[in-house]
Amino acid sequence: MKRILVVDDDAVISRIFSVMLQRVGYQVDLAENGLKGVEMWGKENYDLVLMDIQMPYMNGFEATRVIREKEATRGGHTPIIAVTAHALSEDREQCLAKGMDAYISKPVDFKKCFETIGRLLDIQDRVTGDGKQ
């Protein structure tokens, strides 16, 4: 079963993500800010991270930077999807430039969200040769 880490300071949004992702077969863990998300990512093996951009303590850009730096040392690559209320094309480009693999805007279109998650996990499986479900 694929594990997804949802990093979002909004408890309602996190819970909605959790319920929706579990319904389609993912195991979900929740982190309430970027600092906690980086800590959890460092202790567990996640297949994908959904990362809010605007959070207290450590925002999504900072958390992604720390994760990417740690990956450079230990190896591997965890797909990170930016989740943000900012929906302009330059916001998308900024997320990708900061090391995120994809971008979804709020309010979340769960059909598009699931398609993006599926696409990134499929790419990751092909890169690692890992077909685990």
Please, could you describe this protein's structure?
The protein is α/β, with parallel strands linked by helices. It has one domain: Rossmann fold (3-Layer(aba) Sandwich). It is 50% helix and 18% strand. The protein is built from 5 helices and 5 strands; from the N terminus they run βαβαβαβαβα. It has helices at 11-23, 34-43, 60-74, 89-97, 110-128; strands spanning 3-7, 27-31, 48-52, 80-84, 102-105. A 5-stranded parallel β-sheet has the order 2-1-3-4-5, with helices on both faces. α2 packs parallel to α3 (60-74).
Name the features:
five-stranded parallel sheet; alpha/beta; 18% strand; single chain; Rossmann fold
Protein topology:
Blueprint: E1 3-7, H1 11-23, E2 27-31, H2 34-43, E3 48-52, H3 60-74, E4 80-84, H4 89-97, E5 102-105, H5 110-128
Parallel strand pairs: 1-2, 1-3, 3-4, 4-5
Helix pairs in contact: 2-3
Question: Could you write a compact summary of the structure shown?
Answer:
This protein has helices at 11-23, 34-43, 60-74, 89-97, 110-128, and strands spanning 3-7, 27-31, 48-52, 80-84, 102-105.
**Average pLDDT score:** 90
According to DSSP, the number of beta strands is: 5
CATH class: Alpha Beta
Distance between the termini: 4 Å
Question: How would you name the CATH homologous superfamily?
Answer: Response regulator
| Model regions low in confidence, pLDDT < 50 over at least 5 residues | none
Note the total helix count: 5
Largest sheet: 5 strands, parallel
What CATH calls the topology is Rossmann fold
Strand order of the largest sheet: 2-1-3-4-5
How much β-strand is present in the residues?
15-25%
Shape, per Cα inertia axes: globular
Helix and strand composition category: alpha/beta
Rg: 13 Å
Q: Give the H and E element order.
A: EHEHEHEHEH
| Count of individual domains | 1
Estimate the helix proportion, in percent. 40-55%
User: What CATH architecture would you give?
Assistant: 3-Layer(aba) Sandwich
